[in-house]
Amino acid sequence: MNPCLVAFPLLLLTGCTPLTSLPYFSRSDNISARTPGVAITQARPHQIASFSFFSDTHFTASHAEPCAHQLISVPEQEAGIVRYTGNDVLTTEGVLVVEKRELGLLPSRYQIRFQLAALSQSNGTSYGFSRIRVAREDALGLDNHDFTAIAPTGQTTRQVYRELQRLYQQLDACMAG
Question: Which residue of 77, 95, 125, 170 lies most exposed, with the fewest beta carbons within 10 A?
Fold first, then answer.
């Protein structure tokens, strides 16, 4: 049997599916000012000011600095990763590079630049990502842009939130030992 005879009707039926049911267009994980740990600027146009995450893992400077060196890339112009490490705080700047396929087809590359402060709390560690900027480059040059601030909602906001959340989880697991 010809595979085109099977694939063509399936493609026609996908037209009956609302775009919101596809993973790329899913609205189930919307990020907004009401999302815990999300701060939005007051100035207009509104932008993401910071993302914060909390863990019950105890902060230890002797674990935090090696974990930061292991998991965070240095911005091109910078000499080192960690800016300051104290008994109860670590501050650093970093860049995450994320390779994605837009709509499953178009290869694109995102760079997320941020400042991270990991702070010891009485019952764990808080991770605060601020000065978040994103740059994008795709194979066709359709929506390329240099580092810009992030809107409070949208696909890019969700993607940046997920990537920084993943980094927080990796740092936290590393610090836990």
Answer: 77
